[in-house]
Write a structure and sequence with these properties.
By secondary structure, this protein is α/β, with parallel strands linked by helices. It has two domains: about 130 residues, Rossmann fold (3-Layer(aba) Sandwich); about 80 residues, LytTr DNA-binding domain (OB fold (Dihydrolipoamide Acetyltransferase, E2P)), CATH 2.40.50. It has seven helices and 16 strands. Strands 2-1-3-4-5 form a five-stranded parallel sheet, sandwiched between helices. A five-stranded antiparallel sheet has the order 11-10-9-13-12. It is globular and about 55 Å long.
Length: about 250
């Protein structure tokens, strides 16, 4: 990898933090900071942000590693790789609910850590290239958008959108037979839409209510043609009211 990155370590076991610090330097990257608690981590991040964070699940401070990562991802969108010795399903489920880069389990080898770091940073480089190729522009006074994709401008009527899905720093705009990946937050894109027609059904999904065929209340799934979209408990009552199905 040609470029050098700044990497932060949040780890309360000194032996493991020392090991990761040496490996990061061997890879040619800069160790941005080494902390063992959430308070010091946030203090550092409020001043400057690294390119990647290696995060222990169990740390001291106001937040544990998973709670801290969720805050970081929402505020700064910095990729987080979890370092954990926990093998239980509960920890895995908590990690899977946030948009992290996954986890590596202790004890790990030098090569495992090396490959995990390189995979994430290579992905980051590709995202930068993708950012330059995918743009969305709203047509003034019209319910249409242009999406730049592979050197082409694709004109889309907003009513043809079935749903929008958050994908890290991007959203996926799903039509009946294709989808587009665009660098914009789900919140920002949603605010430009008709709020009665397009409703958030889950933290990661916004749906076009005009495309809904049915709702599976038992399994909390919205059905749109062959598409199945999750419906969170928090949003369930809201969407049923908007559809006048209550």
């Amino acid at each position: 990898m040609s470029q050098s990155y700044k990497i932060m370590i949040v780890e309360d076991e000194e032996l493991f933090s020392d090991k990761m610090e040496m490996q990061i330097e061997k890879l040619g990257h800069e160790v941005f900071a080494v902390v063992d608690n959430s308070d010091d981590a946030l203090k550092n991040l409020n001043e400057e942000q690294p390119d990647l964070i290696l995060m222990d699940v169990r740390i001291e401070g106001e937040y544990d590693g998973i709670e801290l990562a969720d805050i970081i991802l929402q505020k700064w969108e910095i990729p987080v790789l979890f370092i954990t010795s926990n093998h239980d399903d509960s920890t895995f489920r908590r990690i899977s609910r946030i948009a992290s880069e996954g986890m590596i389990t202790k004890p790990f080898t030098d090569i495992q850590l090396k490959r995990s770091i390189e995979f994430i940073l290579e992905k980051k480089e590709k995202e930068k290239l993708l950012e330059e190729k995918n743009e969305v522009t709203w047509v003034p006074g019209e319910n249409e958008i242009f999406i730049k994709h592979q050197k082409k401008l694709n004109k889309i009527n907003v009513n043809d959108i079935f749903y929008i899905e958050a994908d890290g720093k991007y959203i996926q705009i799903h039509l009946i037979d294709k989808k587009f990946l665009v660098r914009i937050s789900l919140k920002e894109f949603h605010l430009k839409l008709d709020q009665k027609q397009f409703i958030q059904t889950h933290r990661q999904f916004v749906v076009n209510t005009k495309k809904i065929k049915s709702i599976d209340l038992e399994n909390s799934i919205i059905i749109m043609e062959s598409m199945h979209i999750p419906l969170s408990r928090r949003e369930r009552e809201n969407i049923l009211k908007e559809l006048d199905w209550l």
